[in-house]
Design goal:
The complex is a heterodimer of chains A (141) and B (670). Chain A is built from five helices and no strands. In chain A, 77% of the residues lie in helices and 0% in strands. The longest helix of chain A has 29 residues, at 42-70. Chain A has a single domain (18-140), classed as Up-down Bundle (Four Helix Bundle (Hemerythrin (Met), subunit A)), CATH 1.20.120.50. By secondary structure, chain B is an all-alpha fold. Chain B is built from 14 helices and no strands. Chain B has helices at 8-27, 55-87, 93-148, 151-215, 223-266, 268-344, 354-401, 411-478, 483-522, 532-535, 538-579, 583-604, 610-624, 630-640. Chain B is rod-shaped, with a radius of gyration of 55 Å. The relative contact order of chain B is 0.14. Classes of the chains: A mainly alpha (141), B mainly alpha (670). At the A-B interface, helix 1 and helix 4 of A face helix 3, helix 8 and helix 11 of B.
Chain lengths: 141, 670
């Protein structure tokens, strides 16, 4: 039995089921890359990972931003900017890959995991907090 | 069960039967299921004996033995309590209430400690899996390090060697291209002078035509001369212009190639030795890490053995909990029956010493507390030991990774950056090489075209000189009238000779260019060289080797990350379980409280009268012969021989937990 290295746990829970489920998908992408790297096959997987990452974040960020609009999240712009920054960074990585630079697997996986952990435990959690606070207020009324 | 016996004699006979059963069972365990009829409490079909020996068979034996003895113990307890009841009518209802409290406390204690141990047991498999994962990761990492041992430095040596060759080649190529450039420029200058010669030829053609016309019939034979001079002049002009254009284009291309090679030398190629040096330093560091890793692996393999042994100890220690649990359960059973008797205040015999029974229960509890305390101490020590060892593994792995507080600075990330930079330089060299080869190919074609033009001009020069000689002869034949033409023919001949000098110079320049081009394409380069040219290009081979080195690096990095994370997680989980493991304190407090209460109750009961003392002792002995566990028998024996419960082990001295083989007849193990 192999213990996963990058596994979504309750420590990363935002409190919104849909978002948590999508975060699990992002962690699974990182874990897939990690497993490929363990076998020394990271370079073969890199192209797929970056493509999947862009696809997945397209969908996930869209959901998050829609939710933020619905709940009138005050830092929508700041959060959206974080999403744009990630996409830009992934895009740059894709360009580097297309230009023949394939030796960046360690950088990619470290960046992705650091971003995921940081983003889910701070920025995304604030959304969950805001949502919960709103529900409590409505409940009191 | 009570009431099944018509007399005390029958009761005692039954007890004897039970004792005999126990003795027989210990001597010949296989007999137990051989005759259920010989042991009336076991109904036929209650248990089914396994047909083959082994773990299931042994478990069956244990089960059968335990349940038979449990029934026996039940009878004995009931009978004992009946007798106790007869002898101690004076015990108050307060005692019953106190016993209630003790029973509740002890039952609660068993539930609480059971929960604690179940928690540990529940985590145990996870801990063992984590430890196995660590061991497997370390073995995999050692394999990776073993594979890349020496291979990396070999690859980098080749890269460095090639980079030095490329540097040298770039230097000579740079010089050669500069020489070719000069020759091309010289050709251009030379042919710009040639245009003057062509102009003079054109003038001479006109003069020839004028003189021919002036001579009239006498000049008929010069008629074609003017036409031919004009035609040849145009041919020379066209060829010369072709050479001039080719020379200009050649110069431009060479200048471009020269700039690229110079640029390559000045930038990336110049940086390559530094990069390779850095990677070599990194690899030396990696080798050092490898050396450390082997030491660590050896140490950690030993540690892993200790961790495994600690897990074994942990399991044994957890099993001891089951013994003490049973011990407490038996005490509770006894106390519950005593309590029933107190409440009922029925006829009690005077021939059983209630005080002694209670003292025995108190001793059993004290013994359970000591065993439990020792086994909990062992569990705590084992958990601390395992947590400490895996934490050390995490720290060592972190050191091997060269991780700083900021993970972005990790050793492997730096190595990856250097691999990328080297591959980039190798790629640039390959591009420059391809471009240079392309320029050299074009150069060859251009030089060939220029040589053709020069050859054409030379042919024209020969024809002009021949015509000039013929014209001179004809002019001499005409006499004074032909003197002007004679001069024209003479100038024409000299001009053709001058033109020959120019074409010779251009041919010399072209030879120089060809020589330089041959030297450039003949040099051993990155894309082709000596023996490697037969097996394929050097660059792709080197690129593949560098990529393999990177793959190895990424696998090492991931494996070490995994070891670090698993160790840290395992250590943290063990620490958390350990922190929540409060069984020892609760157990000690509850048992001490229970003992105190039991002793208090015992103090309130009447001592047995002298006449009934022997019978009471006999009953106690019979009672003792039906314990289910060796620990209980030991306590009883100790009490019977007069050792006080507190003298069995000093309170502050850690009690030794018996080894597994000392579990004896403790049959209900985890």
């Amino acid at each position: 039995m192999v213990i996963p290295m990058f596994q979504w746990t309750q420590d990363y829970a935002v409190g919104v089921e849909e978002i948590d489920r999508e975060h699990q998908g992002l962690f699974a992408l990182a874990e897939g890359m990690h497993q490929a790297m363990l076998a020394g096959k990271g370079k073969e997987t890199l192209k797929c990972l970056l493509a999947d990452l862009l696809d997945y974040t397209d969908c996930h960020f869209c959901h998050e931003e829609r939710l933020m609009k619905q709940i009138r999240y005050p830092d929508l712009q700041g959060h959206r900017q974080e999403h744009r920054d990630l996409r830009a960074k992934v895009q740059v990585m894709q360009d580097r890959l297309a230009s023949g630079e394939i030796t960046m697997t360690i950088e990619v996986v470290q960046f992705l995991v650091a971003w995921l952990k940081q983003h889910t435990t701070t920025s995304d959690r604030r959304i969950g907090g805001h949502l919960k606070a709103g529900e409590e207020v409505r409940g009191q009324k | 069960m009570v009431g099944q016996f018509d007399s005390d004699r029958q009761f005692l006979e039954r007890m004897e039967m039970g004792r005999q059963f126990q003795v027989n069972h210990h001597d010949r365990p296989a007999n137990i299921a051989g005759g259920p009829g010989a042991f009336p409490s076991l109904a036929p079909g209650d248990i089914r004996r396994p047909t083959t020996k082994g773990a299931v068979y042994d478990r069956y034996e244990c089960w059968a033995k335990f349940h038979a003895m449990k029934r026996e113990l039940g009878w004995l307890l009931e009978r004992t309590i009946t007798v106790v009841g007869r002898g101690h009518r004076a015990v108050s209802n307060d005692c019953a209430a106190l016993l209630d409290r003790v029973i509740t406390d002890l039952e609660g204690l068993n539930r609480a400690t059971e929960q604690d141990f179940l928690t540990i047991g529940g985590h145990l498999m996870g801990f063992v899996t984590g430890a196995r994962q660590l061991s497997s990761d370390m073995a995999a990492l050692e394999q990776i390090f073993g594979r890349q041992d020496g291979q990396a430095s070999q690859v980098l040596s080749r890269v460095l060697e090639r980079s030095q060759q490329m540097e040298a080649r770039a230097e000579t190529g740079d010089q050669a291209l500069a020489g070719v450039c000069d020759s091309a420029r010289h050709i251009g200058r030379t042919f710009r002078g040639f245009q003057d010669t062509v102009s003079v030829f054109r003038v001479l053609g006109s003069l020839t035509r004028i003189e021919t016309a002036r001579l009239g019939n006498a000049g008929e034979e010069f008629g074609n001369l003017a036409e031919e001079v004009t035609t040849l002049t145009k041919s020379i002009e066209a060829s010369g212009q072709g050479i001039l254009d080719a020379s200009a284009a050649l110069h431009q291309k060479l200048q471009s190639a020269l700039t690229k090679v110079t640029g390559l030398r000045a930038s990336e190629l110049a940086e390559l030795p530094t990069l390779v040096g850095e990677v070599e330093t990194g690899l030396r560091s990696l080798e050092e890490r490898h050396r450390q890793a082997i030491e660590v692996f050896l140490r950690q393999a030993a540690e892993y053995e200790k961790v495994s042994a600690a897990f074994e100890d942990l399991i044994t220690a957890i099993q001891f909990h089951d013994i003490t649990r049973q011990q407490v359960e038996h005490v509770v059973d006894t106390l519950r029956r005593l309590r029933t008797e107190f409440q009922g205040c029925r006829n009690r015999s005077e021939n059983l010493d209630v005080r002694a029974v209670l003292a025995l229960q108190s001793s059993q509890l004290s013994n359970a507390e000591q065993v439990f305390g020792a086994s909990v101490g062992r569990i705590e020590r084992d958990l601390d030991g395992i947590a400490g060892r895996v934490r050390e593994m995490a720290e060592t792995s972190k050191t091997l990774m060269g991780s700083s507080a900021n993970e972005q600075d990790s050793f492997f990330l730096q190595m990856e950056g250097r691999f990328t930079a080297i591959l980039k330089v190798v790629g640039s060299c390959a591009t420059a090489d391809v471009e240079t080869q392309s320029v050299l190919g074009e150069l060859e074609a251009t030089v060939k075209g220029m040589r053709d033009s020069v050859a054409e001009i030379r042919q024209i020069e020969i024809r002009i000189r021949r015509m000039a000689i013929n014209a001179t002869i004809r002019a001499i034949q005409i006499g004074d009238a032909g003197s002007a033409l004679n001069v024209v023919a003479d100038v024409m001949q000299r001009l053709a000779l001058d033109s020959g000098g120019i074409t010779d110079a251009v041919a010399g320049d072209l030879d120089a260019i060809s020589g330089a081009a041959n030297r450039l394409s003949g040099d051993s380069g990155w894309t082709q060289s000596g023996e490697e040219s037969e097996t394929g290009s050097v660059l792709p081979e080197m690129r593949a080797a560098l990529l393999e080195l990177h793959s190895s690096s990424e696998a090492s990095s991931s494996r070490l990350s995994q070891i670090t994370a698993t160790s840290a997680r395992l250590s943290e989980e063990i620490r958390s379980v350990r922190a929540n493991f409060s069984a020892a304190t609760i157990f000690t407090e509850t048992i001490l409280g229970a003992c105190s209460l039991i002793d208090g109750i015992g103090g309130q009961t009447k001592p047995v009268v002298r006449d009934t003392k022997v019978a009471a002792e006999r009953h106690l002995e019979d009672f003792a012969s039906h314990y289910t566990m060796q620990a209980e028998r030991d306590v009883h024996q100790s009490l019977a021989t007069g050792a006080a419960k507190n003298q069995a082990a000093p309170a502050d001295a850690p009690a030794e937990v018996p080894f597994e083989e000392e579990l004896g007849a403790n049959v209900e193990l985890f």
